[in-house]
# Entry
Amino acid sequence: MPSKLATTMAEDRPGSGKDKGSQIQRAFALLDIVIAENRPINLAAMAEQLDLPKPTVHRIAGRLEAEGFLIREPGGRNYGIGPRLNALAADTLAASAQRAPRHAILESLAKETGETCNLGVLDGNSVVYLDRVESTWPLRLHFSVGSRVPLHAVAMGKLFMSRMPKRVRERFYAAAPLEQFTEQTITKPERMEEELATIRREDMATNNQEYMIGLVGIAVPVAISPGSRNLRAALAVHAPISRMTVEDCRRHLPAMRDAARRLSEALFAESNEESC
# Structure
């Protein structure tokens, strides 16, 4: 049977009422078919499953072969998984295993606090969720790993801003107005500077419904190496205000700082392994 991705791509064929799929989508669909077959497959079978002309499939398969993602059997009729695809799969599994220690730390903190825990990194004018463990409560907000949130409106983001050189923050303020998401969002640079001074002094940041009404949170720094003042990431706990007020957030600080220390050690070990 055609894979789900292949079926989706077949719906993108001309005349289906949808836009044609991009070349990269078609390439992924073709790889999906080869992997699902678990044996070498010929062009005719791939074309049938993709519902695309055979010359089109031949062109895509040829490019994937040239890049090492597919390999042709002797005789040139059937295609199988290439060395680069195998290497990519192995690297993906290795990355998943490498992620296990830090994810375990987040799971432990989520269990101790009873709330959702996030590990985020700075990327431009956003925080990107690197890892996340949801609370077990029925009422919770879902942000998947890879989600981006604005620097100035969340605890992790303000923590990163507090460590930026002042000239960098001034360029940030000058580039565009600070967007207002709720009535609590800090949008004036002078007010933000006061907030950041408090964050530097306390070495933690809070979010009082500044990004979403009803959502509060607290964040602490994760050092680039044990004992360093430089940030690699930020660790946050957040919850609906019905379960946790901004004042309540602070009771989680000892557990969060301990988790941040262990995360710093885990991330430092990851970096050292990658550089070997």
Q: What stands out?
A: The domain at 4-81 is CATH 1.10.10.10 (Arc Repressor Mutant, subunit A). The chain has two domains: 4-81, 96-275. The chain is about 50% helix and 20% strand. The radius of gyration is 24 Å.
